[in-house]
Design goal:
Layout: E1 10-12, E2 15-17, E3 24-28, E4 35-40, H1 44-61, H2 66-82, H3 84-95, H4 99-119, E5 126-128, E6 135-142, E7 146-149, H5 157-169, E8 173-176, H6 182-194, E9 202-204, H7 209-217, E10 224-228, H8 231-242, E11 247-251, E12 256-260, H9 266-278, E13 288-294, H10 298-310, H11 331-345, E14 349-350, E15 367-370, E16 387-393, H12 396-403, E17 408-409, E18 411-415, H13 419-428, E19 433-436, E20 451-452, E21 455-456, H14 461-466, E22 469-476
Parallel strand pairs: 7-8, 7-10, 8-9, 10-11, 12-13, 12-18, 13-16, 15-16, 18-19
Antiparallel strand pairs: 1-2, 3-4, 5-6, 6-22, 11-21, 14-15, 17-20
Helix pairs in contact: 1-7, 2-4, 2-5, 2-6, 3-4, 3-6, 4-5, 5-6, 9-10
Length: 477
């Protein structure tokens, strides 16, 4: 099926704005390395206009009824599903992941909007017990215009996540997605507009990241920051937000440990984890990365994992037969290569992969490393690529210490058939999300976020809407 990549633009004050005299960023197809679009970058005048529009949009949208907000969100969900194939193909062209994955991501975005449509009617306050003639109430109100920053790795779902909760709460949003994958975000915004969202409620801007973030976060219009991305950038944005005491929701980097106990169902664990490791070429914040395998099953697990990784068909994401696409940009293969080289120098063993795939695009062979020492960079830095780093362990206390050793705590996984051990490991792991005998740890109704340096606050679930509300006590005598 032929698919034309969309014309790119900014959405400010109800208008789609093209390149004209603006600076532009060239969008590449990761499967070929070829240019597929020119993305206009906002200047300071554009950002000022977006702030003004967001301020006006908030005045309108905060007065919208729960039914009106819900109608827009559920309508956008329906349109996203109807346009799903077109949106999925756009996402694959600009980000690289397989068409099978972007089709799933379409439904992730629609499910988020449907869930938030329901939450519009569940924003509750309470009346406090007081003497006759007095009344004290606690009410929830929208916090105000939100500046939201989304990364490239989930080009459909991340924009939906950043837009859905604020819109449900009655806020306006200025969204800056990644410049690598703009077309998908445009499609999500267009679905909201076509579903009846007032023109000034959602602004979509692209630009030089530091310029945009400094400009928006310095404005008194913005009341909240929402960011998904690396810990380094997140800390920088939190410092900017601190100057105005902005509330922040931060979903930052991870380095998910995976614990395989000797009583695990190895076939199930291998099948699930090899698939999860190759999902989006490993460019997933909750991707399993540090594998700790109990000594009795260590060699069997390493061998089985390497066999499964070697069998993964890597190719253009638009090819229905591909099970892993390219990495999203030319920076990623270089970074992954450096981590693998360091691990091998440190004494790790290589079980297939470990190098790029010849030809155009940013393809990397699925890679398995075993006997990786704790001092290797890959055991301390998130690889964000199709690389599994493995080490053995003896007992429960040892592996808990290793799993919790790093300052990150986004996701963690464990596989065991012992019910008591499952309870203990779920309690012991320092992570915002834990998967036991599963790699499925996200859902529209479930809070998503980490602890420690993996962030603060939650998205999705009722917690996602709560993060966009302020609590006010009203006392009347």
């Amino acid at each position: 099926m032929l698919h034309t990549y969309p014309k790119l633009g900014l959405h400010i004050g109800g208008e789609w704005l093209g390149a004209t005299t603006r600076r532009a960023h060239t969008v590449l197809n990761p499967a070929t390395g070829a240019a597929i679009g020119d993305l206009p970058l906002a200047d300071s005048a554009d950002l000022d206009r977006a702030l003004e529009a967001a301020e006006e949009g908030f005045k309108v949208w905060r007065k919208a009824t729960p039914d009106e907000r819900a109608s827009v969100l559920s309508g956008a969900a329906r349109l996203i599903r109807e346009r799903g194939e077109e949106i999925a193909r756009t996402a694959t062209m600009e980000e690289g992941k397989t068409i099978m994955e972007t089709r799933i991501e379409v439904h992730m975005a629609a499910n988020l909007f449907d869930f938030y449509a329901g939450e519009c009617k569940r924003i509750y306050g309470r009346v406090l017990a007081r003497p006759t003639g007095q009344r004290s109430m606690v009410v929830k109100q929208p916090i105000g215009p939100v500046a939201a920053f989304a990364p490239w790795n989930f080009p459909i779902a991340n924009p939906a996540r950043k837009l859905g909760a604020p819109i449900a709460a009655g806020c306006s949003v200025i969204l800056k997605p990644a410049e690598e994958s703009p077309g998908s975000a445009m499609a999500v915004v267009q679905a909201l507009l076509d579903a009846g969202l007032p023109k000034n409620v959602a602004q979509l801007v692209f630009g030089v990241p530091d310029e945009v973030s400094r400009h928006l976060l310095a404005s008194p219009v913005i009341r909240k920051l929402s960011f998904t991305g690396s810990t380094v950038v997140g800390k920088h944005l939190m410092k900017l937000a601190a100057d105005r005491a902005l509330r922040s929701t931060m979903e930052l980097g991870g380095h998910a440990p995976v614990i395989i106990f000797d009583d695990a169902d190895l076939t199930k664990a291998l099948d699930l984890l090899a698939m999860a490791k190759c999902r989006n070429a490993g460019q997933v914040c909750v991707s399993p990365t540090r594998f700790y395998v109990q000594e009795g099953v260590y060699e069997r697990f390493v061998t089985g994992f390497a066999e499964r990784m070697a069998a993964v068909k890597v190719g253009d994401g638009l090819d229905e037969a591909s099970r892993m696409g390219p990495m999203a940009n030319p920076r990623r293969p270089e970074a992954v290569g450096q981590l693998i080289s360091d691990a091998l120098t440190s004494g790790a063993r290589l079980h297939g992969g470990g190098e790029p795939i010849d030809g155009p695009g940013f393809f990397w062979k699925p890679t398995v490393l075993s006997d990786v020492p704790v001092s290797a960079r890959i055991m301390n830095e998130e690889p964000f690529g199709p690389v599994a780093a493995m080490a053995s362990f003896r007992d429960f206390d040892e592996v808990v210490e290793q799993a919790n050793r790093l300052p990150f705590g986004l996701a963690a996984f464990a596989f065991t058939e012992n019910g008591r051990r499952a309870n203990l490991i779920g309690d012991a792991l320092e992570a915002g999300m834990v998967g036991i005998n599963t790699t499925m740890i996200a859902g529209a109704d479930s809070p998503f976020g980490g602890v420690k340096q993996s962030g603060d606050g939650k998205e999705d679930g009722p917690e996602g809407v709560e993060a966009c509300l302020v609590t006010k006590a009203i006392h009347q005598a």
